[in-house]
User: What shape does this take?
Amino acid sequence: MAQQLIPADDFLKLTLDNPLGLAPFEFTLANGLAVKVWDSGVISFEPAGQTTEDVVLSCGVHGNETAPIEICAAIVQDILAGRLVVNVRLLVLFGNPPAINAGTREITENLNRLFSGHHSKGAGLINAERQRAKALEQYVSQFYQRLPVTESATGNRSLYDLHTAIRGSRFEKFAVYPYLHGKPWRQAEFAFLAACDVYTVLLMQTPASTFSYYASNEHGANSFTIELGKVKPFGQNDMARFAKADSSLRALIYNKPVKSGAFDHNKFNMYQVYRSIIKQTQDFTLHFADDIENFTSYPPGSLLATDGDIEYRVEKEGEALIFPNANVAVGQRAMLMVVPSSVMDNLQ
Ligand SMILES: [Zn+2]
Assistant: This one.
């Protein structure tokens, strides 16, 4: 019985009690659902009948981003208790259990900069985050392996990597759509994002070391980094703000037609990256308030940052800033500048 193997059906607690690893085990629920625990923070569900959808939900890639962890923990608990019926193959990942325990974004390195093999570059697998990135890649590969990567399969694979931002945002919720190497943006996915109350999308034009780009690029998954709001400690999240994301994820798991809604591009704020500002020296300084919201824009010519002799000013009308962080290491991205964009010329 699930009750003995996963006490109180609380897989998050089991994970956080065993942050460095769990020996695999499996069992079947009374409703026929096969449950497999692969590792700490890694659990899959496979219904007895035929399924066509392979869904990966991940949270806690940044350990202090609590709202998505609470959402996923409740979903897993409801599945184990038989309250939520699963009609897709589902893999749920709690990304960085030691960092969740520590209540910090990371222990030594940003896990979401280590995918697509970046974990093994440079110094190699020298810390727990690098090892975890490699393991998560292997789990995702193993999960998707059932179907070969073909055009026909790609519509059936998805990965939603759920985050909350460090700072407030002019648009509370937004998604990052990984670079598709020229393939069309998918209407059905925008319909799903809208169902999750996410109407702001950053369309990437270059490869990245993120988990969502990895799933998109390596596995042809419809994959997104979804920022659901601002970071708060456990128990302090106003879960009503996440109600639409939560109910849409549950509908996806039940295999309701949650991606078939009409796509109205006028409701969306689409952005693309205009430039990435890299910290060159220790003198890098941001010239706006620390608590500035993501997607804030200033008139052209406004001074954004200085870095030694370099001045960064707004260059384009509508140019907006996201993820500013002067405290990154030299050589890392200190800020991303984005401009309004559209998907209408390459939409499927
Ligand atoms: Zn995050």
